[in-house]
Amino acid sequence: MDNNPFDDAAAQAAAETDTALAGEQSKVGLPAQTALNKMLPTLQDQKTLDDLIKTVNAATNHNEQVAALIHNISTYAGVIVTLLRNAR
Question: Which of 24, 57, 58, 79 has the greatest number of CB atoms lying within 10 Å of its CB?
Answer without folding.
Answer: 79
